[in-house]
Design goal:
- By secondary structure, the chain is mostly helical.
- The protein has a domain of about 55 residues: Herpes Virus-1.
- About 80% of the residues lie in helices and about 5% in strands.
- A three-stranded antiparallel sheet has the order 2-1-3.
- Strand 1 and strand 2 form a beta hairpin.
- The longest helix has about 190 residues.
- The protein is rod-shaped and about 265 Å long.
- The chain starts with a helix and ends with a strand.
- About 5% of the residues are buried.
- Bound molecules: zinc ion (2 copies).
- One zinc ion (ZN) binds next to helix 2.
- Its EC number is 2.3.2.27.
- InterPro entries: E3_ubiquit_lig_Bre1, Znf_RING, Znf_RING/FYVE/PHD, Znf_RING_CS.
- One of its GO terms (molecular function) is zinc ion binding.
- Its main location: nucleus.
């Protein structure tokens, strides 16, 4: 149980060594603390600087965010516009297709119309030829018509002449007929009227010769005692005179 001096001395030396070591450690720690304080000051300065920088950066960030928001809005608007353009482009494309179809159709129609025009031109050409031929025919027909008209005029003139001649002849004939009828009437009158007075009608017959006279003339003949037929001279008496009914 008793410690030796040597041991105690050793222990003391050890403690001395330990103390020196500890003292050294304290000194080191002090240096370190000084360094820490210095570092802390530096750090505070740096922190302040960083804070200031942070504020600045926050401000910038805010600006950037605001700018970004604005850009987003612009982008959104741009997208909407783009959508509208795309829709318009789709519509335009569809319209273009439609137009292309219409143009194709129109081209076809134009082609058909050109064919028809060609055909019509050819038809017009042949029609013109036909028209020329018809004009020639019409000219010929006009000439013929003119000739026929002239012939007709000539014939009408001739007809007029013949008609005049016929009229003249007819009037001559009429005159001749009238004359003939007049003669016939005179003959009849001569036959019917008394041959002595040429005025009264025959009323009596002399039965000896069968000549006829008016009653007045024969009575006068009897009263004058002439008593001969005025026609043939045959003697006759009152008894030879008879009334007749014509
Ligand atoms: Zn008489
Ligand atoms: Zn007689």
């Amino acid at each position: 149980m008793m410690l030796s001096l040597q041991t105690i001395g050793q222990a003391y030396e050890d403690m001395q060594t330990q103390n020196q070591h500890l003292l050294q450690q304290v000194a080191d720690r002090d240096d370190f603390n000084i360094k820490l304080v210095s570092d802390s000051v530096k750090t505070k300065q740096a922190s302040a600087s960083l804070l200031s920088e942070k504020h600045l950066l926050q401000k910038q960030l805010h600006q950037v965010n605001s700018s970004l928001e604005s850009s987003k809005q612009k982008l959104s608007r741009g997208e909407e516009q783009m959508k509208a353009y795309v829709a318009q482009a789709i519509k335009a494309s569809s319209e273009n297709r439609h137009h292309a179809i219409t143009i194709e159709k129109t081209l076809l129609e134009v082609s058909e119309a050109e064919k028809e025009l060609k055909w019509l031109r050819s038809a017009v050409g042949s029609s013109e030829k036909e028209y020329e031929q018809n004009q020639k025919k019409i000219a010929e027909l006009r000439t013929e018509l003119e000739r026929e008209r002239s012939e007709k005029r000539k014939l009408e003139e001739e007809y007029e002449e013949v008609k005049n001649e016929v009229m003249e002849l007819t009037s001559e004939n009429e005159e001749a007929t009238i004359q003939k009828l007049q003669d016939e009437i005179n003959d009849c009158k001569a036959i019917l009227k008394c041959g002595v007075c040429f005025d009264r009608p025959k009323e009596v017959v002399i039965t000896k010769c069968f000549h006829l006279f008016c009653s007045t003339c024969i009575q006068r003949n009897l009263e004058l005692r002439h008593r001969k037929c005025p026609g043939c001279g045959t003697p006759f008496g009152q008894n030879d005179v008879r009334e007749v009914k014509i």
